[in-house]
Hints:
The chain has helices spanning about 20-30, 50-60, 80-90, 105-115, 130-135, 170-175, 190-200, 225-240, and strands at about 5-10, 35-45, 65-70, 95, 100-105, 120-125, 125, 155, 165-170, 200-205, 215. The protein is α/β, with parallel strands linked by helices and about 260 residues long. The strands form two sheets. The protein has a seven-stranded mixed sheet with strand order 3-2-1-4-9-6-10, sandwiched between helices. Strands 5-11-7-8 form a four-stranded mixed sheet. Strand 1, helix 1 and strand 2 form a beta-alpha-beta unit.
Amino acid sequence: MNPSLTLISPNRNRLDFTKPSSQWFIQSIQWQGYKDFSLLIIDGGSDNYEDIKKHIEGHNGSIPMKIMQFKIGKDFHKTLLNNIAIRSCQTDYIATTDVDILFGPKFMACVSELLSPNVMVESRVMYWKEPMAKLVYEGIKNPYNDISGCKVGRIKKRTTPGAIQCMSKQSWEKLRGYDENYIGWGSEDYDLVVRAKMAKIKTKWLGESTESIMAFHQPHARDVKSDLAYQEKNKKILDAVKTYQVNPNGWGNQP
Length: 255
């Protein structure tokens, strides 16, 4: 019997298991108390794909993990990668996240408690700066047994949900997945919130305060100029949303 939920993470040249951020991402998946889910990495053509594939397929943890690849062009087409993975899933519920998130051990249990056919579960995320992440990487702080001691950072507003977006398979199909006009990072997840509301899918939030936060964004190198350019274009798409259905000519590389 397949797990009832698939957690999808798109990647291209971000996962690197020689680095602590990737190690902690996987560790925080594997230490979840709730076990009825699997992780699917959708890779867009990473230079180290074979190394990632070997690590994912050779891992013997309690949470099943697999990887698939769809090579994309120069731009990071995150929405397309997510949609391809979503359309491949056979589970009742599907969630998306990023490969630079670190989850507290009760995170997926809290998500599972909110699952419902006409509900989208969203989560805020706390953004760590380098000094906080370094304490975790050096073993001085541990989110598994002392999550409160790791809550040093900032939580962005709801327009940047960040940690997870989870819906039933039917709801993803109703919305036709992510709008594939979005390229790079920014606005694509909040677009789901806006369109879900239009489609009368109720949004339930996790991590609305420092006390309740259970997901952390790990710091990483950024191409700031490129990111800002993507975000400016994406904001214009978000501002123009008029209907809950998108991708009229097909989504996830399918009709």
